[in-house]
């Protein structure tokens, strides 16, 4: 039976009557196909539904964005060779720019404090040997019933304390780089690099007296470089961590690792940090560089093309349960289609997934379609 509308039917009643004309229910769970809303041409005309064919969006305004910055060593790549004990520098065997192997000698220190540690270890080992022999003797005497159990317990306690003192002093010497054993007194302490790297700065000279903890050399470990970039707040809003940047003069791309959530007081710009993996032969610390934002990777790992997504009229987008949808017209009817929207960068909207260029989306009459989709006044007339 044809569906007829009264001439002066109020808008609210019109929407409700359109919803009643189509059996339906609430929107289905995510991941399930939505049923098409099949309306006749008379219903479409009465509800004022109109569509627009969508096209591929132009390239993202952030793609190709050029940023300027300075190459630097990240904090995680800096190693500081320092003296664990007080002493006098006897020699420094490294220079600025020299490449070091793991464990390579950097400097030599003469330390009276180190002599004291070694002496304490030798004394502790002697006390531990005496305590062990006393315990062995008391165990035999206790077994023969010649001494009380209390005396044996005291011997065991003294032996444990003596062994603990030996382990403590050995560990202190090991942490100082002097080895875990001391067979003789040796005041010389060799300071070595813990990892492969390049000497950035030598901070000590022969004959200089250093206190414990003072630096001798600063080394940059191989394999990591960082770029400190600056962007305007508008540019930073288009970026996200994980974006890749093509660095001028370097074959390896950089990865945006951090967007600092505050502005620089001097020029009101946003500071960005990018990391670049590899030997870094194409870049040098403190070098000024230009970095160009590359296309982002999609969820499947493919590169986003220059025409990224589909341009949508803003009036075509509706929200259900906090998620964006559009109504796409198909031969079967109007299909509620979930879309993934790119971050808003203007008056329009860009769908990254869900629809294709050439689809016809509804731009007017959305309220009536939404009522029918959600089963407002569900039933059959």
Offer a quick outline of the entry.
This protein has 381 residues and is of the alpha+beta class.
Overview of this protein structure:
This protein has six helices and 22 strands. Helix content is 24%, strand content 31%. The protein folds into three domains: 11-59 and 305-373, Beta Barrel (conserved putative lor/sdh protein from methanococcus maripaludis s2 fold), CATH 2.40.420; 66-75 and 223-293, Efflux pump adaptor protein, beta barrel domain (Elongation Factor Tu (Ef-tu), domain 3); 112-186, Orthogonal Bundle (Helix Hairpins). Helix 1 (11-21) crosses helix 6 and helix 3 packs antiparallel against helix 4. The strands form five sheets. It has a six-stranded antiparallel beta barrel with strand order 2-11-14-13-12-15. Strands 1, 17, 18, 19 and 22 form a five-stranded antiparallel beta sheet that branches. The chain is an alpha+beta fold and 381 residues long.
